[in-house]
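Same chain as my last thread, 215 residues:
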Amino acid sequence: MGMNLENVDIIRLLPVFMRDDEAVVALSKAINELIRGPGSEIKRLREWDQIDNMSAAELDEMAWEMSLEWYDPTVGIESKRATLKAARALKEKAGTKWAVVEAVRAAYGVAPEISEWFEYNGTPDHFRVKLNAAGSFDFDRIMRAINYVKRASAKLDEVELATTEHQDLYVGMTVVSVMTIEVPPMDPQEALVIAYLTDELDFALADELGNILTD
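reply #2:
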């Protein structure tokens, strides 16, 4: 039977004359236990298709091995997985506009708008980033993500943060009708016309002192 790090047996590697030494055998068994544990994890750590099955600690270790400076070990496990999944493709397409967009998306969760220098009459090889800051914002992390994939010759002019606020507005209304009463005076030529305000039920409206409101 073959031997690998998952089922290593140091005793089998000992010279025959040492296999009867109890101290050597005990030490070999202890070494077996020390090697088999990490050895069983190596296969899973090196396989990209196992990212969804890795623990947070394993993801942190993988990011450290890849030297991902913009990887944040404090975020949730799904954000860690998204960052690592994007990292390989980003490295392969580093220097492109797509890579900058996807790096920021992986680091922040929102895709930015990238404007190249000719789109805003800027300096050649310069660019701008516009990002919807809809939550907590870690500027240093965003910059590390951008610097990880942008061309060395490309210069970032600015990062514009855009926010959108929503506010509920409530509008109320009522119906006011005007009733006209004609009071005949003693002299028909001096007829008095009084118009007062009423609500939708034709009740007269009054002020705080009880005076009827007239038109």
